[in-house]
Amino acid sequence: LQWKKLVKLVSDYEEPNNINFYHIRRYNAFLRLPVLSWGFFLAFGLAGIILTWKRRRQLFPLHWYLMLYSASLVIFFITSRFRAPLWPVLILFSAVAFYRIQEWLKAKKILLGAIASILPTIVAALLILGNKKIIQAQYFENMVLIYGKLDDNKSVINELSDQLLLYPAAHDAQWKLAYYLQKEGLKEEALEKLDDLLRAVGDQPQVLRSAGLLDLELGNRERGRTRLGRYLELSPQAPDSIEIERIISGPGSR
Protein backbone atom coordinates (compact mmCIF):
# COMPACT_ATOMS: atom_id res chain seq x y z
CA LEU A 1 0.00 0.00 0.00
CA GLN A 2 2.81 2.43 0.87
CA TRP A 3 4.43 1.69 -2.48
CA LYS A 4 1.18 2.51 -4.30
CA LYS A 5 0.91 5.79 -2.41
CA LEU A 6 4.51 6.63 -3.29
CA VAL A 7 3.70 5.99 -6.95
CA LYS A 8 0.69 8.32 -6.63
CA LEU A 9 2.92 10.99 -5.13
CA VAL A 10 5.42 10.79 -8.00
CA SER A 11 2.84 10.28 -10.74
CA ASP A 12 2.03 13.23 -13.00
CA TYR A 13 -1.71 12.59 -12.61
CA GLU A 14 -3.66 15.22 -10.68
CA GLU A 15 -6.21 13.53 -8.45
CA PRO A 16 -9.67 15.09 -8.86
CA ASN A 17 -11.98 16.22 -6.10
CA ASN A 18 -15.01 18.37 -6.81
CA ILE A 19 -13.39 19.35 -10.13
CA ASN A 20 -11.15 17.47 -12.53
CA PHE A 21 -8.11 19.38 -13.80
CA TYR A 22 -8.08 17.52 -17.12
CA HIS A 23 -11.72 18.36 -17.69
CA ILE A 24 -11.09 22.06 -17.03
CA ARG A 25 -7.93 22.26 -19.14
CA ARG A 26 -9.90 21.38 -22.30
CA TYR A 27 -11.13 24.97 -22.28
CA ASN A 28 -7.74 26.61 -21.74
CA ALA A 29 -4.78 26.23 -24.12
CA PHE A 30 -2.43 27.65 -21.47
CA LEU A 31 -3.28 24.85 -19.02
CA ARG A 32 -2.57 22.27 -21.72
CA LEU A 33 1.10 23.27 -21.93
CA PRO A 34 3.28 20.27 -20.92
CA VAL A 35 5.47 22.48 -18.71
CA LEU A 36 2.49 23.15 -16.42
CA SER A 37 2.59 19.70 -14.94
CA TRP A 38 3.78 18.01 -11.79
CA GLY A 39 6.08 15.70 -13.74
CA PHE A 40 7.94 18.62 -15.33
CA PHE A 41 8.63 20.48 -12.09
CA LEU A 42 9.38 17.28 -10.18
CA ALA A 43 12.05 16.30 -12.71
CA PHE A 44 13.69 19.72 -12.95
CA GLY A 45 13.22 20.37 -9.23
CA LEU A 46 15.19 17.24 -8.42
CA ALA A 47 17.80 18.35 -10.95
CA GLY A 48 18.02 21.68 -9.12
CA ILE A 49 18.48 19.89 -5.78
CA ILE A 50 21.35 17.84 -7.24
CA LEU A 51 22.96 20.90 -8.81
CA THR A 52 22.85 22.80 -5.50
CA TRP A 53 23.95 19.89 -3.33
CA LYS A 54 27.20 21.63 -2.43
CA ARG A 55 25.07 24.24 -0.63
CA ARG A 56 22.99 21.66 1.20
CA ARG A 57 23.85 23.12 4.62
CA GLN A 58 22.27 26.45 3.69
CA LEU A 59 19.39 24.77 1.87
CA PHE A 60 18.67 21.97 4.35
CA PRO A 61 15.36 23.55 5.54
CA LEU A 62 13.97 23.21 2.02
CA HIS A 63 15.38 19.69 1.63
CA TRP A 64 13.89 18.58 4.95
CA TYR A 65 10.59 20.21 4.15
CA LEU A 66 10.36 18.26 0.89
CA MET A 67 11.34 14.97 2.53
CA LEU A 68 9.18 15.27 5.65
CA TYR A 69 6.08 16.53 3.88
CA SER A 70 6.41 13.87 1.16
CA ALA A 71 6.84 11.20 3.84
CA SER A 72 3.70 12.41 5.63
CA LEU A 73 1.72 12.08 2.40
CA VAL A 74 2.92 8.54 1.81
CA ILE A 75 2.36 7.44 5.42
CA PHE A 76 -0.94 9.12 6.28
CA PHE A 77 -2.74 9.88 3.03
CA ILE A 78 -3.68 7.98 -0.11
CA THR A 79 -4.18 10.79 -2.61
CA SER A 80 -1.80 13.05 -4.46
CA ARG A 81 -4.12 16.06 -4.12
CA PHE A 82 -2.29 17.10 -0.93
CA ARG A 83 1.07 17.51 -2.67
CA ALA A 84 0.22 21.12 -3.68
CA PRO A 85 2.49 22.60 -0.91
CA LEU A 86 5.45 20.89 -2.59
CA TRP A 87 4.99 22.83 -5.82
CA PRO A 88 6.55 26.16 -4.72
CA VAL A 89 9.75 24.52 -3.49
CA LEU A 90 10.12 22.39 -6.61
CA ILE A 91 9.51 25.44 -8.80
CA LEU A 92 12.33 27.25 -6.96
CA PHE A 93 14.74 24.39 -7.50
CA SER A 94 13.60 24.11 -11.13
CA ALA A 95 14.47 27.79 -11.60
CA VAL A 96 17.95 27.08 -10.20
CA ALA A 97 18.35 24.21 -12.66
CA PHE A 98 17.34 26.43 -15.60
CA TYR A 99 19.71 29.16 -14.44
CA ARG A 100 22.63 26.72 -14.07
CA ILE A 101 21.96 25.22 -17.51
CA GLN A 102 21.87 28.70 -19.02
CA GLU A 103 25.17 29.64 -17.35
CA TRP A 104 26.89 26.49 -18.60
CA LEU A 105 25.67 27.07 -22.14
CA LYS A 106 26.86 30.69 -22.02
CA ALA A 107 30.26 29.49 -20.83
CA LYS A 108 30.24 27.01 -23.73
CA LYS A 109 30.23 24.06 -21.35
CA ILE A 110 27.96 22.30 -23.79
CA LEU A 111 28.32 18.79 -22.36
CA LEU A 112 27.38 19.84 -18.81
CA GLY A 113 24.47 21.93 -20.10
CA ALA A 114 23.25 19.09 -22.29
CA ILE A 115 23.38 16.51 -19.49
CA ALA A 116 21.66 18.83 -17.02
CA SER A 117 18.86 19.54 -19.49
CA ILE A 118 18.41 16.22 -21.29
CA LEU A 119 18.23 13.92 -18.26
CA PRO A 120 15.43 15.78 -16.43
CA THR A 121 13.65 16.28 -19.77
CA ILE A 122 13.61 12.50 -20.27
CA VAL A 123 12.30 11.94 -16.73
CA ALA A 124 9.63 14.62 -17.21
CA ALA A 125 8.61 13.15 -20.57
CA LEU A 126 8.25 9.66 -19.07
CA LEU A 127 6.09 10.99 -16.23
CA ILE A 128 3.93 13.14 -18.51
CA LEU A 129 3.49 10.46 -21.17
CA GLY A 130 2.60 7.94 -18.46
CA ASN A 131 -0.27 10.16 -17.32
CA LYS A 132 -3.55 8.84 -18.76
CA LYS A 133 -5.30 12.12 -17.82
CA ILE A 134 -8.44 10.31 -16.79
CA ILE A 135 -11.66 12.33 -16.72
CA GLN A 136 -14.31 10.44 -14.79
CA ALA A 137 -17.79 10.40 -16.36
CA GLN A 138 -19.32 12.25 -13.42
CA TYR A 139 -17.54 15.49 -14.37
CA PHE A 140 -19.17 15.49 -17.80
CA GLU A 141 -22.50 14.72 -16.17
CA ASN A 142 -22.09 17.63 -13.74
CA MET A 143 -21.46 20.06 -16.60
CA VAL A 144 -24.44 18.69 -18.51
CA LEU A 145 -26.64 19.49 -15.52
CA ILE A 146 -25.21 23.02 -15.25
CA TYR A 147 -25.53 23.80 -18.95
CA GLY A 148 -28.96 22.22 -19.01
CA LYS A 149 -30.18 24.61 -16.31
CA LEU A 150 -28.73 27.49 -18.34
CA ASP A 151 -30.54 26.25 -21.48
CA ASP A 152 -27.17 26.12 -23.24
CA ASN A 153 -27.95 23.15 -25.44
CA LYS A 154 -24.86 23.51 -27.63
CA SER A 155 -22.56 23.23 -24.61
CA VAL A 156 -24.55 20.22 -23.41
CA ILE A 157 -24.03 18.60 -26.81
CA ASN A 158 -20.29 19.30 -26.66
CA GLU A 159 -19.99 17.80 -23.16
CA LEU A 160 -21.95 14.67 -24.09
CA SER A 161 -19.98 14.25 -27.32
CA ASP A 162 -16.69 14.49 -25.41
CA GLN A 163 -17.96 12.04 -22.82
CA LEU A 164 -18.84 9.51 -25.51
CA LEU A 165 -15.36 9.79 -27.00
CA LEU A 166 -13.97 8.52 -23.68
CA TYR A 167 -16.92 6.33 -22.68
CA PRO A 168 -18.53 5.00 -25.89
CA ALA A 169 -20.58 2.51 -23.87
CA ALA A 170 -22.27 5.31 -21.84
CA HIS A 171 -25.75 4.62 -23.21
CA ASP A 172 -27.43 7.17 -20.97
CA ALA A 173 -25.16 9.88 -22.42
CA GLN A 174 -25.99 8.70 -25.93
CA TRP A 175 -29.70 8.91 -25.15
CA LYS A 176 -29.31 12.44 -23.76
CA LEU A 177 -27.20 13.50 -26.74
CA ALA A 178 -29.93 12.38 -29.14
CA TYR A 179 -32.47 14.37 -27.13
CA TYR A 180 -30.45 17.59 -27.17
CA LEU A 181 -29.56 17.20 -30.84
CA GLN A 182 -33.25 16.98 -31.57
CA LYS A 183 -33.92 20.07 -29.45
CA GLU A 184 -31.37 21.95 -31.56
CA GLY A 185 -33.11 20.83 -34.75
CA LEU A 186 -30.34 18.40 -35.70
CA LYS A 187 -32.78 15.57 -36.34
CA GLU A 188 -30.67 13.49 -38.70
CA GLU A 189 -27.77 13.51 -36.24
CA ALA A 190 -30.17 12.64 -33.43
CA LEU A 191 -31.53 9.70 -35.40
CA GLU A 192 -27.99 8.43 -36.03
CA LYS A 193 -27.38 8.39 -32.28
CA LEU A 194 -30.65 6.57 -31.67
CA ASP A 195 -29.76 4.01 -34.36
CA ASP A 196 -26.41 3.42 -32.64
CA LEU A 197 -28.16 3.11 -29.30
CA LEU A 198 -30.64 0.53 -30.62
CA ARG A 199 -27.78 -1.53 -32.02
CA ALA A 200 -26.05 -1.38 -28.64
CA VAL A 201 -28.95 -2.04 -26.24
CA GLY A 202 -31.55 -3.77 -28.41
CA ASP A 203 -35.24 -2.95 -28.58
CA GLN A 204 -35.73 -0.53 -25.70
CA PRO A 205 -39.28 0.87 -25.82
CA GLN A 206 -38.51 4.56 -25.30
CA VAL A 207 -35.63 4.47 -27.77
CA LEU A 208 -37.84 2.74 -30.33
CA ARG A 209 -40.54 5.37 -29.81
CA SER A 210 -38.16 8.30 -30.28
CA ALA A 211 -36.42 6.71 -33.27
CA GLY A 212 -39.75 5.79 -34.87
CA LEU A 213 -41.16 9.30 -34.56
CA LEU A 214 -37.97 10.79 -35.96
CA ASP A 215 -38.05 8.33 -38.85
CA LEU A 216 -41.54 9.51 -39.74
CA GLU A 217 -40.50 13.17 -39.55
CA LEU A 218 -37.53 12.51 -41.83
CA GLY A 219 -39.55 10.51 -44.35
CA ASN A 220 -38.43 7.01 -43.33
CA ARG A 221 -42.06 5.95 -43.07
CA GLU A 222 -41.78 2.19 -43.31
CA ARG A 223 -39.03 1.92 -40.71
CA GLY A 224 -40.79 4.46 -38.50
CA ARG A 225 -44.04 2.49 -38.53
CA THR A 226 -42.13 -0.74 -37.83
CA ARG A 227 -40.34 0.78 -34.85
CA LEU A 228 -43.49 2.30 -33.42
CA GLY A 229 -45.28 -1.02 -33.87
CA ARG A 230 -42.49 -2.75 -31.97
CA TYR A 231 -42.77 -0.09 -29.27
CA LEU A 232 -46.46 -0.93 -28.82
CA GLU A 233 -45.66 -4.66 -28.68
CA LEU A 234 -43.24 -4.06 -25.83
CA SER A 235 -45.39 -1.43 -24.06
CA PRO A 236 -49.03 -2.17 -24.89
CA GLN A 237 -50.23 -0.25 -21.83
CA ALA A 238 -48.14 2.86 -22.56
CA PRO A 239 -50.05 6.10 -21.82
CA ASP A 240 -49.58 7.24 -25.42
CA SER A 241 -50.47 3.88 -27.02
CA ILE A 242 -53.69 5.18 -28.60
CA GLU A 243 -51.88 8.22 -30.02
CA ILE A 244 -49.08 6.03 -31.40
CA GLU A 245 -51.64 3.68 -33.01
CA ARG A 246 -53.27 6.70 -34.64
CA ILE A 247 -49.90 7.89 -35.93
CA ILE A 248 -49.09 4.45 -37.35
CA SER A 249 -52.43 4.12 -39.14
CA GLY A 250 -52.70 7.78 -40.16
CA PRO A 251 -52.33 8.89 -43.77
CA GLY A 252 -49.08 10.73 -43.02
CA SER A 253 -47.31 7.42 -42.33
CA ARG A 254 -48.34 5.59 -45.44
Question: What is the secondary structure topology, with strand pairs?
Answer:
Elements: H1 2-10, H2 21-24, H3 38-51, H4 56-76, H5 87-106, H6 110-129, H7 137-149, H8 153-166, H9 171-183, H10 187-201, H11 205-217, H12 221-234, H13 241-249
Condensed summary:
This protein is mostly helical and 254 residues long. It has 13 helices and no strands.
Net shape? elongated
Low-confidence blocks of residues: none
Portion in beta strands: under 5%
Number of strands: 0
Query: What share of residues is helical?
Result: over 70%
Query: Kindly, what is the distance between the CA atoms of the first and last residues, rounded to a whole number of angstroms?
Result: 67 Å
Give Rg in angstroms: 28 Å
**Number of distinct helices:** 13
Largest sheet, in brief, is: none
Q: What would you call the structural class?
A: mainly alpha
| Mean of all residue-level pLDDT scores | 91
The helix-strand sequence is HHHHHHHHHHHHH
Describe this structure in words.
- This protein is mostly helical and 254 residues long.
- Helices cover 70% and strands 0% of the residues.
- The chain is built from 13 helices and no strands.
- It has helices at residues 2-10, 21-24, 38-51, 56-76, 87-106, 110-129, 137-149, 153-166, 171-183, 187-201, 205-217, 221-234, 241-249.
- Helix 1 packs across helix 4 (56-76) and helix 11 (205-217) packs antiparallel against helix 12 (221-234).
- The longest helix has 21 residues, at 56-76.
- The protein is elongated and about 90 Å long.
- The chain starts with a helix and ends in a 5-residue tail after the last helix.
